[in-house]
Amino acid sequence: MVGKVTPDDMASASGLPALIGVSKYRSPNDELNDKIRAIKGEPRDESDTNEAMGWGNLMEPIILRQAAERLGLEELELDHPEPYFHGTWPLACSLDGLANGNGQVIASEHNRGIFVIGQDEIKLEGKGVLEAKLTSIAPEEIPALYRGPLQLQAQMAIVGATWGAVCVLYQGTELRVFLFAPHDRTIELIEKTVYDFQGRLDKFKQTGEIDYYPPVNSKDADRMFPEAVDEVVNLDDSATELARQILAAQHLAKQAEADRQKAEAALKAMLGNAARGIAGDFEIRWPMRSYKAQPEKVVPAKEAYTIRQSTLSVKEMRT
Predict the structure, then answer these.
(1) Is 164 among the domain residues?
(2) Is residue 87 located within the same domain as residue 178?
(3) Is residue 236 part of a domain?
(4) Does residue 22 sit in the same domain as residue 135?
(5) Which contacts of 106-114 are long-range, i.e. CB under 8 A and separated by 24 or more positions?
(6) How high is the pLDDT of residue 215?
(7) 97: enclosing H helix or E strand
(8) Average per-residue pLDDT in the chain?
(9) Statement to judge: residues 191 and 254 lie in one domain
(10) pLDDT tens across 71-93, in order?
(11) Which of 38, 57, 126, 221 fits a disulfide with 8 by CB distance 3.0 to 4.6 angstroms?
(12) The CATH number of the domain where 131 resides is what?
């Protein structure tokens, strides 16, 4: 892996889980904001990098060599310093690896960590795409869509491969190789998604306006609209119902917390000094917790700053 090689101002295969809405970590608007920053000439945000990603890059060639050996692949190519582009779609990808399957037919062999997804067997005709992943989670029977399958479908579409493999090393101890053929409905979804995304980028280039996706959660909306201006807008009737929902949910949360504290206090009184209690099918623990000594910390000074609050303030106006 040579780092990010795809352009910063167009859709990439690795960003598809976010654009399609299946990523655990990023929203469609995160992808849109990143590309718009690139179009504006702003530097790439590297804050998402972490040690786990570094280990993934280091382990990538080892994972792919082991997967190729397990599948009996030849002509393994791991050096791909340049991006690949789809012939017609506004979509690019980087590749971890390519290898020749020599036309062999592979069926699932779970004891060897080989899983053919969506069919009984697959023919490895010509060169296929290999995508490496490293994760700390327990082994899966089918990898999550954001852990390679969507990315692989795009990569196969870009290079014209008829097969591909997502090669996942789980918890540093178990390698599983998931073999896929191109999936027509997924390919159609990818095509639709990247054209829609490119349309939003083109609109920004032409007008300077950002055509955001609907927010997936409250934090996503925070990132969409980070600045508040001193103005009042009249909202439609649907906003009234949403405001009522917030107030009702806040009331239920307060009541639930009060109920929890009341039950907890009663159980603590029953336990007394005992660290553990048994109640039918429940084990209740109230242990000691130890803390290591820590040196005194001096908190550095901070410059004053203003940000938009994340939580809405909702109150009913009486007339």
Answers:
(1) yes
(2) yes
(3) yes
(4) yes
(5) 106/71, 106/179, 112/70, 113/70, 113/174, 113/175, 113/176, 113/177, 114/70, 114/71, 114/176, 114/177, 114/179
(6) 94
(7) strand 97-100
(8) 92
(9) no
(10) 999 999 999 999 999 999 999 99
(11) 38
(12) 3.90.320.10
Structure confidence by residue, pLDDT tens digits, 216-248: 999 999 988 888 888 999 999 999 999 999 999
User: Burial letters for 303-313: b for 16+ Cβ neighbours within 10 Å, e otherwise?
Assistant: eeeeeeeeeee
Tally of domains in the chain: 2
Shared-domain flag, residues 248 and 159: no
Amino acid at 266: A
Same domain, 138 and 261: no
CA proximity to 311, closest of 227, 219, 212, 215: 219
Q: Please indicate, yes or no, whether residues 80 and 188 belong to a single structural domain of this protein.
A: yes
Give yes or no for a contact between 24 and 48, defined as CB atoms under 8 angstroms apart: no
Q: Quote the pLDDT of residue 319.
A: 62
Residue 31 inside a domain? The answer is: yes
**Under 8 Å between Cβ of 64 and 177:** no
Separation between Cα atoms, residue 117 and residue 180, nearest integer Å: 6
Of residues 171 and 319, more confidence is placed in 171
CA dihedral (298, 304, 310, 316) positive or negative: positive
Cα separation, 213 vs 27, in Å, equals 9
Domain encompassing residue 107: 11-202
**Model confidence at 138, in pLDDT bands (50, 70, 90)?**
very high
Query: Bridge partners of 179?
Result: 116, 165
Q: Which two tokens stand for residue 5?
A: 């090689």
Residue 30 tokens read as: 């995160």
Q: Report residue 161 as tokens.
A: 């491969």
pTM value surpassing 0.70: yes
195 belongs to a structural domain? yes
Indicate the residue type of 303: E
